[in-house]
Design goal:
The chain is α+β, with helices and mostly antiparallel strands. The protein has 8 helices and 18 strands.
């Protein structure tokens, strides 16, 4: 079974799970997943994990992401986006770009967010959005997330468009709502496009129209990228044949070289064996892969 990462564009009005189910049928692959959920109304890049790639989900979801978001000022909804029930409307004063940029700057760095009720987080065994649809609201603890950069792209009141680069777990809907409160107007997300996840960019993804109209997966396989494309930020380690055999059987092997942290580990024939953790002079297997043909290792950028 072939394994790898398939970068696709998700269209509006479908869930990430529906895209995965569609691709599972097209590719006829028993193991297909995705590297980070997009809301149904959101569009843009959705990394698809095929075969052994599903084992790399934690590393894909941990990659930094970029979004282009449009927030409609003056509108507050229960879902924090424009599709929700309107809770409040407020007038929008004539705000200039400098004022909006200054408000956006408050959200750069490590910030705290209260997860929205309409989210997939669990509370006592149930998804928050299930409780929200029943009219219930539960207390959510603030979570620390990292926002690396925010830039203002356009102002067309009552809408503002900004570009954000952020880390794992950031809710851009909440960011838009919090921006509205900082400006004194309230806001709801009206459009969201994910443009990048780690090394994968929407400009290089399989377009949504192509994906939706495909009748088989023959052409899609040509877009499959190697598994180590998701691990390019990790230092590489190549083992000799003896250490290779030990590593794939779950044993720690020499070769850490005093390094600590995660490594992408290759066998003597160039095959990606998986992810190891450097512990002094040893490397301990953390995630093993077993379906990789030999290939040239990816050189970190």
């Amino acid at each position: 079974m072939r394994s790898g990462i398939l970068a696709v564009e998700k269209g509006p009005g479908v869930t990430s799970f529906q895209v995965v189910a569609h691709l599972r049928r097209l590719l006829r692959a028993p193991k297909v997943g995705h590297g980070g959920t997009l809301d149904p109304d959101a569009t843009g890049l959705l990394p698809i994990l095929v075969g052994e790639g599903t084992k790399l989900t934690p590393y894909l979801t941990a990659l930094d992401k970029e979004y282009v978001a449009t927030a409609r000022l003056g509108l507050t909804t229960d879902t924090q986006d424009a599709s929700g029930t309107v809770l409040r409307e407020r007038p929008v004063p004539l705000l200039d770009a400098d004022t909006i940029t200054a408000a956006l700057a408050r959200f750069i760095g490590e910030i705290e967010q209260i997860p929205p009720m309409y989210s997939a987080l669990h509370h006592e065994g149930r998804r928050l959005y299930e409780l929200a649809r029943e009219g219930a609201e539960v207390e959510r603890q603030p979570r620390k997330v990292m926002v690396y950069a925010i830039t203002l792209d356009a102002v067309a009141l009552p809408e503002v468009t900004f570009r954000v680069r952020c880390g794992k777990g950031t809710y851009v809907r909440t960011l838009a709502a919090d921006l509205g409160e900082a400006l004194g107007t309230g806001a709801a997300l009206s459009r969201l496009v994910r443009t990048r996840v780690g090394p994968y960019h929407v400009d290089d993804a399989v377009p949504w129209d192509t994906l939706r109209e495909a009748r088989d997966g023959a052409a899609l396989w040509t877009h499959l990228r190697p598994l180590d494309s998701a691990l390019g930020d990790l230092p590489a380690l190549t083992l000799d044949s003896r250490a290779t055999q030990a590593f794939v059987h779950g044993q720690s092997v020499p070769g850490g070289g005093g390094r600590a942290g995660l490594l992408r580990v290759y066998g003597a024939d160039g095959a990606l064996l998986g992810v190891g953790e450097g512990r002094g002079d040893l490397v301990k297997p953390e995630r093993l892969l077993h379906a990789d043909p030999p290939r040239t290792p990816v050189v970190p950028r």
